TrEMBL record:
PROSITE patterns: PG_MUTASE (PS00175)
Protein name: Broad specificity phosphatase PhoE
GO cellular component: cytosol
Annotated SMART domains: PGAM
Active site: H22 (tele-phosphohistidine intermediate), E94 (proton donor/acceptor)
InterPro entries tied to this protein: His_Pase_superF_clade-1 (IPR013078), His_PPase_superfam (IPR029033), PG/BPGM_mutase_AS (IPR001345), PGM_Phosphatase (IPR050275)
A Pfam family annotated for this UniProt entry: His_Phos_1
Coiled coil regions, renumbered to chain: none
Binding site for substrate: R21, H22, G23, E24, T25, D26, W27, N28, R71
Gene Ontology MF terms in the entry: phosphatase activity
Amino acid sequence: MKRTLPFPLPDGDDALFCLVRHGETDWNRDKRIQGHLDVPLNDTGRRQALAVRRALAGIPFAAHYASDLARTLETARLILGEDAPLQPHPGLRERHCGHFQGLLPEEAERLDPQGYARYASRDPHYRPPGGEALLETFTRIGRTLDELARAHRGEAVLLVTHGGVLDAVRRHVEGLPLERKRDFPIPNCGLSWVRWGQQRAILAWAETSHLEAPARDEIAAM
C-alpha cells in the first residue's frame, strides 16, 4: 500500500534524501574500526533492518542507493527485499581508515600512537597510511550527494550508508567544523531526512521510534 512521504518533495533542483545507517555488526558492538572492510550484520542488525523495512513500507522512493560494502548492501536488501532495484554506490562508503582498519582503539593506539592521536582528535588533514584524510571523506560525500541530487531533482531517494557519512552530511548542512567533536547521534538503522541541493536542511535526524530496542552509537572518531 502506497504511503505519503513524511515531508513534501522539494521544488527546483533539490532532492529529498532518507539516509539510513546500516544495522549493527559485531565490530560495532566491540568498537572495532571497520572502515572499508566487509563485515556482516549480526542478529541485532538484521532485526533493525527489518524494522526499517516496516517503517518505510509503501514510501514512494524514486530510487534506492547503498554503499557497496557488505554491511550496507545487506541492510538495504533486508529493507527492500531481494527483487527491488538497488544501485550500489562507492561514493557512499565509510571513510577508509588505512592501517587502523580491523583494530580495536587500544590496538590502533599501540600500533601508531602519534597517528592514532591525530585520527582520534579529528585532524582533517591526517591520512592514516593506506587510508583517507577526514577532509577527503567529507569532500567525497558532498560530491556524491550533489551528484545524486542532480540525478533526482524533486524526488525522494533512499540512501543506505555509514555513520561517518552521516557525520559528514550533517556537518555539510549545518556548516560544522570537521575538528569539532560530534555531539549529535548516529544510531544503527536510525532514519534521517535531509533536503539537499541549492537549499540544504535537516528535516529529521536519527529517528529510532521504529526500533524495538535502543540502537548502538559507538562512533567517536569518524
